[in-house]
Specification:
Layout lengths: L9 H51 L1
Length: about 60
């Protein structure tokens, strides 16, 4: 049995939990979106670095 906070009905507790779940789910989605953007940025920078290194190699030889 779940212990309800003082003065809170079962329906109120359930509504509060569902609201918190929505907030947490949205935060997770936002963080995943941010991570995907960071991964894309890192991949782009790695590609740029590879091109720079190739240019250095060509100019050095």
């Amino acid at each position: 049995m779940v212990q309800l906070p003082d003065g809170m009905s079962r329906d109120e507790a359930l509504a509060a939990l569902r609201q918190r779940r929505r907030v947490v789910t949205q935060k997770i989605a936002n963080r995943k979106r941010e991570l995907r953007a960071l991964v894309a940025e890192v991949q782009s920078l790695e590609t740029e670095l590879a091109h720079i290194e190739q240019g250095e190699d060509l100019l050095s030889s």
